[in-house]
Write a structure and sequence with these properties.
single chain; about 350 residues; alpha/beta; two-stranded parallel sheet; 11 helices; 17 strands; about 35% helix
């Protein structure tokens, strides 16, 4: 495959183009390349400004329809971002979470294997499972994966994602790359409960909603868990590093009689962590940073904001909640194979996200 960013004949299919990551990727593809986009989603409010773009075609559909799958797979590059990834739903809708994160992406992978499309599939850092507070760096090709018991339905999402990874990796004839995101954050992330979504969003949108409403930030089980947060613009740069690697590289085979051959891209048949180890904080520390940044944005004393409150995971999320205490990515593989390393600092990520949230919802 020879992907040139100035090639107007290339069309990339983005499944989940209206979501948080998808909306940023759509903008980036249209701004950085001459490619066309075939976008699939149910929700297009984040990309209203692109709906009439002559380089785009949009389809309101899901992956349960075989005709939709075949249509998507006709394009040379397919980026699958579609997933149910709302933590509160892992307990209350475990079966639908599994269908969304296993049945449908596997069907898409099979369609891509038949058509020859390159599938760039977004998994999750949750596949590393029930890590402890003393867990070290998590490596794509070495770290053992261990989940909580079946009764802890919080692991429905991670289990489905991991099984999808294994299926994709074992699917004969499929050209694939898989991505394990570590807490991508930025503008357009998730939703504000009761305004444009229901349930409990991920932690950044959850804290942002509470700040805007003048409510205490809830620290689940004391906020002791540690996470690394990654700016969405770093995430998009990573995807473009994968795109850039999607071209056959000519190797000089001088030692083999001067014959030249082509090798596959270093992105093919690889799983990549995408995260920023420098941005690690406990959730309690994240809450305090967000309080300070929010107070600065709104030009109010931080003392005027409610103090965080400690709640139990079961009381907050429901029966079946469990957690990972630390997720620290090893990111050397992305650097070695693709030359990519995330660089956006945590405070810049948080300020960028909060400024958008305040401007959008206030």
């Amino acid at each position: 495959m020879n992907l040139q960013f100035n090639d107007r004949s290339v069309t990339v299919a983005i499944v989940g183009c209206g979501g948080f990551i998808g909306s940023h990727l759509l903008d980036a593809v249209l701004c950085r390349t001459k490619w066309r986009v075939f976008g699939v989603d149910f929700d297009f409010y984040r990309i209203q400004h692109r709906l009439n773009d002559e380089r785009c075609e949009f389809l309101c559909a899901d992956l349960s329809n075989p005709e939709v799958l075949n249509r998507i797979a006709q394009f040379p590059v397919v980026v699958n971002l579609a997933a149910i990834c709302t933590p509160s739903r892992y307990m209350s809708e475990a079966c639908e979470v599994i269908r969304s994160n296993y049945d449908r992406p596997v069907a898409l992978a099979e369609a891509c294997a038949k058509s020859g499309a390159w599938l760039i599939h977004f998994s999750t850092s949750e596949v590393y499972g029930r890590t402890g507070s003393d867990s070290g760096e998590l490596s794509e090709d070495e770290t053992p994966l261990s989940f909580g018991p079946v009764g802890a339905s919080r692991w429905s999402y991670a289990t489905a994602k991991l099984l999808t990874e294994r299926y994709i990796a074992g699917l004969e004839g499929l050209k694939w790359t898989m991505v394990r995101p570590f807490n991508f954050v930025g503008p357009y992330m998730d939703f504000m409960p009761g305004v444009d979504g229901e349930g409990i969003p991920r932690v950044l949108a959850n804290f942002s909603s509470a700040l805007l409403r003048g409510e205490p930030l809830k620290l689940v089980n004391g906020g002791k868990a540690r996470r690394c947060f990654t700016g969405i613009y770093d995430a998009i740069d990573f995807i473009f590093a994968v795109f850039a690697a999607g071209t056959n590289r000519q190797l000089n085979m001088a030692d083999a009689g001067g014959v030249s051959e082509f090798s596959d891209s270093p992105a093919y048949s690889q799983i990549f962590n995408v995260g920023n180890p420098d941005n690690e904080v406990t959730i309690a520390e994240l809450a305090q940073r967000m309080r300070n940044i929010y107070a600065s944005i709104r030009e109010v004393p931080v003392e005027s904001l409610p103090q965080p409150e400690v709640v139990s995971g079961e009381d907050y999320y429901g029966v079946g909640y469990d957690d990972s205490m630390r997720r620290m990515p090893n990111v050397e593989k992305a650097w070695k194979l693709l030359g990519f390393r995330a660089s956006m600092g945590l405070d810049d990520c948080l300020r960028d996200s909060l400024k958008w949230f305040v401007g959008h919802y206030a």
